[in-house]
Amino acid sequence: MVIKVFLASSSGSTAIKKKQQDVVGFLEALKVDYAQLDIACNEENRMWMRQNVPEEKKPANGIPLPPQIFNEESYCGDYDTFFDAKEDNLVYSFLGLPPPPGSKAHAEEEEEQEEADDDREEEDLQSEEEEELRQLEEEEEAEVQEEEEEDLEETQEEEAE
Asked: Is the overall model pTM greater than 0.70, yes or no?
């Protein structure tokens, strides 16, 4: 999977330039495989980016500004959502990538997976215990019913004599 970062190589906005540098620098620091796609020099890139940013994520004027981030064809987000993910240490999930082995994010993901597995095991054990308890109750009911039927038969036999 390749992360696509749509950038404007010749932007007049220093804010956009800083945001683009922040995204690219962070991806490089994480050693994430990504491709820079220039929307200033390539009309196809600009049109593709504009068409593939979801409507609900587009600004009021309808024209999304760079940087915009995709995982192949899947939209990840813009700079603000990237920044939020970075602050929350959720960049890999934001990008739709598994965290690399040995990373803090990977350790956290493994811990969450272990907790989920433990929860499932606990639920399974609880279900098994509930099933065993239900079976015991059914057996006890059957025994009580049998005893009542035997008592009734004995009473009927005694009355018949």
From this structure: no
